[in-house]
Amino acid sequence: MSEYKVLPGPEAFLPPAAASMGVVLPDPGEAHIEGRIVPEEEAYEYAARKLLAGKVPTLFPGPLVLWKWNDKAALKAAAIRRLADAIPARLIPMADYRPKYPKIDPEAEINPNHPNLTIWHNKIDVCIFIGVHCHQANLALKIIRGGTNCYTMAMCAQAGHEDACLSFRDLTVEKIDKMTETVKRLKSEGVESQAEGFKQFKMTSAGRS
Amino acid sequence: MNKEVDVKGKKGTRSQHVKLGQKNKKDQTFTDVEDMFAAKDQQGPSFLTGSEVIRDAIKVASVDISVAYPITPQSEAAALIGELYAEGYLLDYFRGESEFAVMGQCAGASFGGARVFTTTAGPGTLRAMENFPMWAGSRLPIQVCVTCRGINSPLSIQPDTLEMHYLLETGMLVWHAETAQDLYDFILAGFIVSEQPDVHLPLANCCDGFFVTHTKDTVQKAPEDLCLTPYDPYKSPVPCMDMECPPVRMMRDPFVMKSNYISYATHASWQQEVRAAVERSRKHTIQLLGGLIETENLDREILIVSSGTAVSQGREAIRLLEEEGIKVGLVKIKTIRPFPNEELLEATANAKHIFVPEFNMAGWLAREIKALLPNNERVYAGPHVAGGMTMPSEVIAEEIKKHLGIATDSWGGC
Amino acid sequence: MSKEKIVLCDDLADIMPPEYLDLVKDATYGNQDRGWKDVGSSKELIEQHSLCAGCPESIAFRYVLASLPAPEDTVFVGSTGCTSLVFPHVAVQNIHSLFGNQNAIASGLHRALKVRFPDKVKDVVVLAGDGATVDIGLDMTLQSWFRQEKFTTICFDNELYANTGGQESGLMQKGFVSKMAPVGKLFDKVRLPEIARESGCHYVACLTVSKPNRVEKALKNAILVAREFGPTFLQLYTPCILEIGKQSMEGLDEMKDAEAIGGRFVYKEYATDEVKKFLKEKDAEEKARKKAAKNQG
């Protein structure tokens, strides 16, 4: 088993890929926490506590759930909104993967080529990637681990991400809802959200309203 | 330093494809690859050349598109795949204008969401070379069968594995088949491993030209009324370029530069991610190939460690030495990328002498092994032949004896 | 993609950057009458670019993107050069692979889309510079035409290698002094339109991008003919003002000069008799459709 732990950074000028340090992806029914393979059940509770403990918990939805390219995507988007409302967490989109020119608005967008800008700008200390293509997610997760102290999580529809501090795999709408339920349950048991007050921005053609 | 990948007790990733159990237009049933392998016992062995084996593997591999270009010794296989196309087993097939173009055409088809197979050899591999890191960087799970041949002047069409050395740092998976049976199994397993969403990399499935492609061998095949489940481009870790999935504002693959706001960390992370994907292939490969290496008699102090047909010659050399009372064990390496680090450390733990016979002048495999093992003075790089020479098992046996100071009927060294 | 897929999920639409809200609301995907006149009045498919101020390539890009018959089912293949700085910002999926292999990529891509979507029209369009088309990639350009691959090749001809700093290319004029042609280019500008015609292109047009309606017509012709008949080719003069020593404002004049009588880019069009007949029928259909729409409106 690998000794390497996938912990928040800032880790290094160029941190290694966790897979190259021997961290193996979970099998179906499993998740990983900081490189440790655990039953998926265990990860819900751990992730929910992390989200509630964060000062600036943030969800980063990607193109696969932002665009209604199939019915499932729309259902996932609705489930993501419910999760964000339950925590409560900010929603910041990864609208696409292009090197954005001349620059992004780091308060309202995250980009895989320089995700650190968004983390730094908003002082995000815990986040979830969801609906981002795996390759792009791993680029972003590594850069975040390298240069920020953000605790990263991934809710992945495929095999999961070792470059996140915590990762689910085979994501479904039901699993997002289960995360929401776990958050609500913890809150009902007295675990309080530490999130700083914020107002979720709304976009129009003219910009933020 | 790579650490051990713990795959003990791992459950395999079985195909979840919606078409599993359904039939294609050739009346073949879409089947999980492990069930296809399990069904190999249902019929007697076939006696085939390596080229025919490539054809028969592709016949049951649900390949969408293959692009061909003639170069010895892979031409026959490429032409036989054309016959499969004529029979309706592939959806498209054509001859490209050069290996550089063929690999581009394969890339285009893969960008467009098709399962793609091609073949090349020697000078063709080198002409195509610019494409291979592009394939890997673009995360295109194309499979190319490389039938190794000489690449130096003067031109030789005969087997020489030097071209594999050029493939090692392309970011591709690189496997090395010893026999026709390996080749059959590697092709089928190869599609499934390289198309896993967490891997999704091209595969160079290498075999030694002529020794494998043109000699006949017995092979256990899956029944031809089964076939692999199709490739699903929407499980890809990168967007498929068909304007059917988001984002539509998408360039594959942009060079991230010319902006003060963008860090070259993207490029570095991209390269790391490709290598990470090679690492991720370990668990899938171990599951489908039964391990990255095969071993015999690891308790012995002398080992032959090699890949490809050098392993076959090594086996025979072991038999010859056994007759003289010299006991030698064997390690066969199946995957060069990923390199079986932990497996080799474990397998060679007790060895005092490690011989690495190779069909190339450079001895690149011995170098890889030396770079990995502690006390690497144990590793003897050789014997070598090159340019198409055979490597008689007697030569291996003699060289081992000579190195160990045992009297031999010397052939003269090489 | 059917245009219906280019919509946002209701529950997350309000966090999307404005350019995407606009794209869904005001882009002209699926609009039969789309054309150059939409530039500036609808949401364009090019978001931004890092080309030089006044670069004719940028306006050429905008005309091309505005005039595609079916951008929701079009995939571009580009190559290395100035054009590849624009492509990341284009709202049509596109591929950059290697320098010069664009027609090989397009061949494989078009075939994959054909076998995956046999009942759909998927347009593949190559758009590359002159270095990629006529020098490093000439083999693959011509061979895709010989093979009768059914896609359109567009060459943005600026008569030199611009992105690397102004070196000689095959499409440079004879005698022009540039980097790597220190005593002037020693051979004639390669006659690519004629080569295209002889290599099996069914429709070829060579023009500047000074007149947007001409660009629109040539592009639509090229794509419609490629769907039905086989390869088509457009050569568009997009001068590199920087490397020929002109000011940002002088691109248009440069193009007008080049297309004037005796110039290198006097409008040129080749089409087979079959294609001429086909385009005539298409034009008649189009006219009838617009007339009917007008009467209804």
Task: Name a few traits of the molecule.
heterotrimer, A: 209 residues, alpha/beta, Rossmann fold, two-stranded antiparallel sheet, C: 297 residues, 7-stranded mixed sheet, 38% helix, THDP-binding (chain C)
List the helices and strands and how they pair.
The complex is a heterotrimer of chains A (209), B (414) and C (297).
Chain A: E1 30-33, E2 36-39, H1 40-53, E3 57-61, H2 63-66, H3 71-86, E4 90-91, H4 115-122, E5 126-130, H5 134-147, E6 151-155, E7 166-168, H6 173-188, E8 203-204, E9 207-208
Helix pairs in contact in A: 1-6, 3-6
Chain B: E1 29-31, H1 33-38, E2 46-49, H2 50-59, E3 65-68, H3 75-87, E4 92-95, H4 99-111, E5 116-120, H5 122-127, H6 131-137, E6 143-148, H7 162-167, E7 173-176, H8 180-195, E8 203-208, E9 216-219, E10 226-228, E11 251-252, H9 265-289, E12 293-296, E13 302-306, H10 309-323, E14 328-333, E15 335-337, H11 341-347, E16 353-355, H12 364-372, E17 379-380, H13 393-404
Parallel strand pairs in B: 1-10, 3-4, 3-5, 5-6, 6-8, 7-8, 13-14, 13-16, 16-17
Antiparallel strand pairs in B: 2-9, 7-15, 12-14
Helix pairs in contact in B: 2-3, 2-8, 8-9, 10-13
Chain C: H1 18-26, H2 56-67, E1 74-77, H3 83-86, E2 94-95, H4 102-116, E3 123-129, H5 130-136, H6 138-146, E4 152-157, H7 192-199, E5 203-208, H8 212-228, E6 232-237, H9 251-259, E7 268-271, H10 273-296
Parallel strand pairs in C: 1-2, 1-3, 3-4, 4-6, 5-6
Antiparallel strand pairs in C: 5-7
Indicate the low-confidence ranges of chain C by residue numbers. Answer: none
Main sheet summary of chain B: 7 strands, mixed
Number of domains of chain C: 1
What order do the strands of the largest sheet of chain B run in, or round the barrel if closed? 4-3-5-6-8-7-15
Q: How many domains, in number, for the residues of chain B?
A: 2
Q: In the CATH hierarchy, what is the class of the largest domain in chain B?
A: Alpha Beta
Report the count of strand segments of chain B: 17
Secondary-structure-derived class of chain C: alpha/beta
How does the overall form of chain C come out from the CA principal axes?
Answer: globular
Q: Provide the CATH top-level class of chain C.
A: Alpha Beta
Q: pLDDT average of chain B, as an integer?
A: 94
Q: Any idea what the CATH superfamily of chain C is called?
A: Thiamin diphosphate (ThDP)-binding fold, Pyr/PP domains
How large is the share of residues in beta strands of chain B?
15-25%
Described by its quaternary structure, the protein is heterotrimer
| Rg of chain C, alpha carbons | 19 Å
Give the termini separation of chain C.
29 Å
Q: CATH homologous superfamily of the largest domain in chain B?
A: Thiamin diphosphate (ThDP)-binding fold, Pyr/PP domains
Would you tell me the overall average pLDDT of chain C?
96
